[in-house]
């Protein structure tokens, strides 16, 4: 596969005519083969005569993807990922917006740091929105200057990596946010219950002799936060849900009108705790004996840990019925040497920007997910959560991804735009190749 | 005189776990171990592994297992090198993978690894070209211990088919128990575990393992009882007092009367005499503890010979 070409948000707007492309737009439930024209940053009725014509046969055009959960290691660890490489990985994955988590070094906990990120990100291959730290230094002690950071452009707050540790601090933050229009993005995990757990508790952990992470470490914080969101009226966004009880709690809370949204990662939908034991079967595939490679791959360590198959199926069901709003990658680059260690010492997290669409399409091919839901969960639904819009209608800003849903690609470390390659999917053949990404009318990636 | 060992069907390059071994493979190892015991006395295979260099990397203190591996390698003519972990690269902060790759470059062809982290041998197998022999990894596995236990029991019983073997103690944190659970079941035995609630509860979900909550229940109809070593610090850390353990779980002669007559006693060693079992029992006629130690070298000789394709 050729490396593809990246553009920038500051490039000149493109004039393009995509001819005969399958247009799937969740914003108005479109699914039709037609032409799509872009000019001066917007979708237009007719492209000018000198517009570049791109054949769309066999390709799908959808609104540009929006990722609510990305780790750029910049500032702090630029060898692992920078704002630039992260933005390129995003554009290559079909994303036109990514939300950067604040656990950089130093953490993004002040208005001037939010402004600095915006300025540095202005000329990259993807719109980068800032998530501010909810507490000063992410220490979980004092509430950060949330209003000031919103003024500088923050779209939400999170101490991701950990939950807001105490009930009263969580209530304080949600009370402040109740009068502002941005969410608390919560990494729901009770540190005491999680203990030294390194993989999901259950038969696989027991057999492997690894310390188990119990599901109640997640859903107890989910229940707490839902109660506080209900009490304060603030917008709570629960990120990377990984357990069936959490999905059920959110479903019930939404039914009673709590202001809650949530996301799930592609890896919690597709991979299971059996991957730590060496399996490489997706959650929707029947587990079988004899498909086991060498176990304990550090690239399978992630927090929250890969779930049981039953949980993964509950997450897919939650996505289908709208309980789960969005797919967010939790793209977490790490250097190889931090995962080429015994499993319990591996840095938790995997990269996701360049595989999110492919894992989703694998789920669609496996009958576990419907294509319109996948595309809505990657584009319109998360965009709405942070106040962006996505539409392929005439006159709307031109944010789109064009991909070949049936072409396969094999994942190699040197073919990735990300500066890191930590994922157990390396070497695997996956469906779905992004051919074109357009953000605000600018071509940010093209194959 | 040096003779060639008869060739056998064997395809594995590493021994990381017993979970992946079939009954036929385990029987192959045990049969070869019997042969190795005789060969060791006659020095028949003293050059079988002359081309191999065995590296002993013990990241946890061990005397008996390390010595057993070293003697096994030497009995087959391999060169051995013992890493002094405490004084070497661990202190300098070199990663495990870097240390092992260095070992490989210096000529080590077979690695015996003991490590506190579960899965460390799998990492070694994935990142180096050496044969990897798991000498005990965290709370995961201790394959050669399970194999020598299996040999000891097979010789005591003739066959494990239909025999009831009870494992008593901290099963949840025991790599010896995990490996034995698989090996004994594959060889046809019924396996029962028992011990303080916290040490056995997760075993409820293991297929084919019978969990009993009292020693009396566990010993009823038992043909052999394996006591696990109690880690005193772990016990007290988990609210299990030594006095309580001794009161409810220590094996003694009167308790053994609940088992089948002449039921055997095993212990992976080293024993805390008076804690897991009485000294009288450990040294009595039903004890196979000495045989376990004796079988360690031939079992490890057999495994080394099979992994390299020499046997």
Which helices and strands, and how do they pair?
The complex is a heterodimer of chains A (447) and B (311).
Chain A: E1 5-6, E2 16-25, E3 30-39, E4 42-44, E5 52-55, E6 60-63, E7 65-70, H1 83-92, E8 95-100, H2 111-121, E9 127-132, H3 146-152, E10 156-157, H4 167-178, E11 184-187, H5 191-194, E12 199-200, H6 203-208, E13 212-213, H7 216-232, E14 236-239, H8 244-255, E15 260-264, H9 266-270, H10 309-320, E16 326-327, H11 356-365, H12 371-378, H13 380-385, E17 400-410, E18 429-439, E19 442-446
Parallel strand pairs in A: 2-5, 2-6, 7-8, 8-9, 9-10, 11-14, 12-13, 14-15, 15-16
Antiparallel strand pairs in A: 1-19, 2-3, 3-4, 6-17, 17-18, 18-19
Chain B: H1 23-42, E1 53-58, H2 64-75, E2 79-82, H3 89-92, H4 96-105, E3 110-115, H5 120-127, E4 131-137, H6 143-157, E5 164-168, H7 175-186, E6 190-194, H8 197-200, E7 209-212, H9 215-219, E8 224-227, H10 232-237, H11 242-249, H12 253-256, E9 264-266, H13 279-282, H14 289-308
Parallel strand pairs in B: 1-2, 1-3, 3-4, 5-6, 5-8, 6-7, 8-9
Can you describe this structure in just a few lines?
The complex is a heterodimer of chains A (447) and B (311). By secondary structure, chain A is an alpha/beta fold.
């Amino acid at each position: 596969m050729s490396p593809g070409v990246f553009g920038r948000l500051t490039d000149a707007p493109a004039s393009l005519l995509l001819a005969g492309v399958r247009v799937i737009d969740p914003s108005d439930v479109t699914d039709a083969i037609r032409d799509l024209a872009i000019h001066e940053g917007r979708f237009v009725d007719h492209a000018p005569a000198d517009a570049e014509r791109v054949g769309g046969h066999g390709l799908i055009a959808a609104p540009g993807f929006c990722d609510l959960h990305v780790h750029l290691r910049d500032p702090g660890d630029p060898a692992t990922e920078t704002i630039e490489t992260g933005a390129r990985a995003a554009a290559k994955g079909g994303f036109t917006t990514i939300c950067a988590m604040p656990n950089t070094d130093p953490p993004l906990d002040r208005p001037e740091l939010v402004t600095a990120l915006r300025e540095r990100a202005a000329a990259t291959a993807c719109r980068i929105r800032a998530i501010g730290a909810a507490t000063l230094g992410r220490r979980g002690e004092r509430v950060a200057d949330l209003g000031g950071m919103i003024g500088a452009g923050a779209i939400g707050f999170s101490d991701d990596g950990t939950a807001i540790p105490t009930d009263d601090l969580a209530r304080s933050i949600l009370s402040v946010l109740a009068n502002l229009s941005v969410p608390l993005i919560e990494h729901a995990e009770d540190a005491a219950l999680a203990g030294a757990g390194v993989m999901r508790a259950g038969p696989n952990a027991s057999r492997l002799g690894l310390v188990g992470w119990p599901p109640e470490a997640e859903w107890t914080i989910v229940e707490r936060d839902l109660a506080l969101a209900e009490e304060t009226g603030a917008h709570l966004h629960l990120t990377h849900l990984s357990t069936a009880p959490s999905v059920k709690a959110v479903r019930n809370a939404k039914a009673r009108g709590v202001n809650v949204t949530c996301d799930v990662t592609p890896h919690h939908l597709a991979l299971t705790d059996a991957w730590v034991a060496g399996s490489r079967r997706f959650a929707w595939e029947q587990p079988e004996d004899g498909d086991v490679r060498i176990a304990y791959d550090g690239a399978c360590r992630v927090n929250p840990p890969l779930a049981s198959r039953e949980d993964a199926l509950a997450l897919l069901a939650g996505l289908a019925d709208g309980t789960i709003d969005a797919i967010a990658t939790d793209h977490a680059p790490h250097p190889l040497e931090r995962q080429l260690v015994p499993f319990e010492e591996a840095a938790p997290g995997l990269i996701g920007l360049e595989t999110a669409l492919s894992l989703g399409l694998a789920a669609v091919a496996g009958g576990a997910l419907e294509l319109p839901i996948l595309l809505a969960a990657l584009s319109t639904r998360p965009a709405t959560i942070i106040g962006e819009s996505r539409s392929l209608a005439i006159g709307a800003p031109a944010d789109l991804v064009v991909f070949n849903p049936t072409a396969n690609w094999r994942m190699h470390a040197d073919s990735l735009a990300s500066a890191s390659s930590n994922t157990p999917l390396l070497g695997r053949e996956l469906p779905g190749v992004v051919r074109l990404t357009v953000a605000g009318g600018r071509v940010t990636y093209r194959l | 005189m040096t003779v060639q060992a008869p060739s056998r069907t064997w395809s594995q390059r590493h021994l990381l776990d017993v979970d992946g071994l079939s009954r036929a493979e385990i029987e192959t190892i045990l049969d070869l171990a019997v042969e190795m015991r005789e060969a060791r006395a006659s020095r028949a295979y003293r050059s079988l592994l002359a081309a191999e260099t065995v590296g002993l990397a013990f990241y946890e203190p061990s005397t008996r297992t390390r010595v057993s591996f070293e003697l096994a390698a030497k009995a087959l003519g391999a060169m051995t090198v013992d890493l002094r972990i405490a004084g070497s690269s661990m202190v300098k902060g070199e990663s495990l993978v870097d240390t092992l790759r260095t070992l490989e470059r210096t000529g080590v062809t077979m690695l015996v690894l003991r490590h506190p982290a579960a899965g460390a041998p799998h990492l070694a197998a994935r990142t180096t070209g050496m044969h990897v022999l798991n000498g005990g990894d965290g709370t995961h596995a201790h394959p050669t211990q399970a194999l020598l236990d299996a040999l000891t029991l097979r010789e005591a019983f003739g066959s494990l088919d239909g025999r009831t073997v009870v494992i008593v103690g901290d099963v949840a944190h025991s790599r010896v128990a995990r490996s034995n659970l698989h090996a004994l079941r594959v060889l046809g035995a019924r396996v029962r575990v028992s011990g303080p609630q916290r040490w056995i509860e997760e075993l409820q979900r293991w297929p084919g393992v019978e969990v009993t909550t009292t020693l009396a229940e566990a010993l009823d109809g038992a043909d052999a009882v394996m006591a696990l070593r109690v880690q005193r610090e772990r016990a007290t850390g988990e609210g299990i007092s030594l006095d309580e353990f001794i009161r409810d779980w220590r094996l003694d002669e009167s308790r053994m009367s609940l088992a089948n007559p002449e039921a055997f006693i095993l212990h992976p060693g080293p024993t805390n005499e008076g804690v897991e079992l009485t000294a009288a029992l450990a040294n009595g006629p039903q004890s196979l503890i000495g045989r376990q130690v004796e079988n360690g070298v031939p079992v490890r000789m057999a495994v080394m010979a099979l992994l390299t394709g020499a046997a």
